[in-house]
UniProtKB/TrEMBL annotation:
Keywords assigned: Membrane, Transmembrane, Transmembrane helix
Keyword S-adenosyl-L-methionine appears in the UniProt entry: no
Superkingdom of the source species: Bacteria
DUF112 domain: residues covered: 20-441
Organism encoding this protein: Pseudokineococcus lusitanus
Protein name (database record): Putative tricarboxylic transport membrane protein
Pfam families: TctA (PF01970)
Spans traversing the lipid bilayer: 20-49, 109-135, 147-163, 170-188, 200-223, 321-340, 360-381, 393-415, 435-454, 466-490
Length: 501
């Protein structure tokens, strides 16, 4: 009851006219920056941080609430329309979302994304408002062994779920690990796989990797197939900027299942929302395979609804973990931590007692930001969808230019543009040989985290490998992993047998 009283006080602050203006401005700016290929939600928060310096701390953080969720919606918008997710958390949404767009259902895809983001964010923010003190005890129960088990689960599950061939999935993981270990080893200070280039000492940025493999790789692949001939028909956008009753009925279970995946992952630092979005996507894909008329690969609405809800649910509880225990569990949350520190706030349990008014106003503004985004983006869905009406040569040239500008704006490094080109060629070759991209990105994001936790576990146990299975939590995770692998293998064998018949 005390939390509800505090939240009511937060709403009284956040609903003042000027603060409502900041939420709306933040949502618009966050979406606008997030939509640009190569930028994304984390970059939206980072680039717009200087804009808030002229505001008072309450107004600045309330504006950031709009930017936070607006950037996440922008990430998915570019993935759906251009097959170029603004952030790695939107990769899973791209698979079926982009197919919906190519089938002329871009407005419905964007509406599915907006409602899914609203559903996941609303549930997660409610959990934050009512259960912030519980987050600290939950996260503190995980040690390096549990973190390593979770990352191992993500690696294997992604390889089996996303790839039609387990061998190609594992090959993609190896490529991701190879890219992810470039740079200086954080524990020993050893320089690894940098070819003696100082520019690689800090590793290869995830934004460069994501944009290179997905955006530029897609441009090169489409160009290689000769699809830019003058006689080609443009992709036409038809349909409603809203969902029919049947579509809502189809998507609603996926929204709820995705939210259930996303909420707990927000407080566990395993790379942000990549793991729950792919788990949600994989679950819907397996459920779809049991249907008489499978829709995955044709633009399945559930394949978009579940990861969208999971991504925003993770983002919502990640904000709770950031405020309650000072633990950023995603790149966007890490940038938000920087924003809080700029105004002199130290996140953690003491933040609620020292700056309770501001914290509860921020949490209230997260609720308001979700409603603002839904109101703004549902009517604007056809406007965003009209990006597909741009002639393909101009559209893909524009993607390349914005991708390059986004990378250069982030680092100011010409060297990163060279990396962008090299990774684009790698993405092109992977598409040509049907090697999935998702395991590469998962390995790049979670690989360093898995390595650190494995080494910490072995250091604590003095090299005893049994420490990896010492807790009940790890045994449960590995048990679930074994069950998932067995089920995946059985399904693939059955599918191959049916095909042979």
């Amino acid at each position: 009851m005390e939390a509800l009283a505090d939240l009511a006080g937060g709403f009284s602050t956040a609903l003042s006219p000027i603060n409502l203006v900041w939420v709306v401005v933040g949502a618009l700016l966050g979406t606008a920056v997030g939509v640009l290929p190569g930028l994304g939600s984390a970059m939206a928060v980072a680039l717009l941080l200087p804009v808030t310096f002229a505001l008072d701390p309450t107004g600045a953080l309330i504006m950031f609430a709009g930017i936070y969720y607006g950037g996440l919606f922008g990430d998915s918008t570019t993935g759906i329309l251009l097959n170029t997710p603004g952030n790695s958390s939107a990769i899973a949404s791209t698979f079926e979302g982009h197919r919906m767009a190519l089938a002329g259902r871009a407005p419905q895809a964007l509406a599915t994304s907006a409602i899914g983001a609203f559903t996941g964010g609303l549930v997660a923010t409610s959990v934050v408002a009512l259960g912030a003190p519980l987050f600290a005890s939950l996260a503190s129960a995980f040690g390096p062994e549990e973190f390593f088990a979770l990352t191992a689960f993500a690696f294997v599950a992604t390889s089996f779920v996303v790839a039609d061939s387990a061998l190609k999935g594992l090959a993609a993981l190896v490529i991701g690990f190879a890219v992810g270990v470039v740079g200086i080893d954080s524990q020993t200070g050893t320089v690894r796989y940098t070819l003696g280039l100082p520019q690689l000492f800090d590793g290869i940025g995830i934004v460069v990797i994501t944009v290179g493999l997905l955006a530029l790789g897609e441009v090169l692949y489409i160009a290689s197939r000769g699809r830019w001939q003058s006689g080609d028909k443009l992709v036409r956008v038809t349909g409603r900027p809203y969902l029919s009753r049947a579509e809502v009925k189809e998507a609603a279970p996926a929204w709820l299942r995705g939210t259930a995946f996303g909420v707990p992952f927000g407080v566990i630092p395993v790379g942000g929302s990549e793991v729950p979005t792919f788990l949600a996507y994989g679950t819907e894909r397996r459920l779809d395979a049991r249907r008489a008329d499978p829709q995955f690969g044709k633009g399945a609405i559930r394949g978009l609804a579940a990861p969208e809800a999971a991504g925003n649910a993770t983002a919502g509880t990640a904000m709770g973990a950031l405020l309650a225990i000072g633990l950023p569990t995603s790149a966007t949350a890490a940038v938000m931590l920087t924003a809080l520190q700029q105004f002199g706030f130290q996140t953690g349990p003491l933040l609620f007692s020292r700056s309770g008014d501001l914290v509860w106003a921020l949490i209230a503004s997260l609720f308001i930001g979700l409603f603002v985004l839904l109101i703004i983006n549902l009517p604007f869905a056809p406007v965003w969808a009209k990006l597909l009406l741009i002639p393909r040569p101009y559209l893909y040239a524009g993607i390349s230019v914005f991708a390059g500008l986004g990378i250069y704006a982030a680092s100011g490094s010409v060297f990163d543009l060279g990396l962008l080109l090299g990774l684009g060629l790698l993405g092109f070759l992977m598409r040509r040989h049907d090697i999935p991209l998702a395991p590469v990105l998962i390995a790049v994001i979670l690989g360093p985290l898995a390595e650190v936790n494995l080494r910490n576990s072995l250091a604590i146990s003095q090299g005893d490998l049994t420490v990896l299975f010492s807790s009940g939590t790890t045994r449960v995770i590995y048990g679930l992993l074994l069950v998932a692998v067995v089920v995946a293998v059985v399904n693939k064998v059955r599918a191959r047998g049916s095909a042979d018949v």
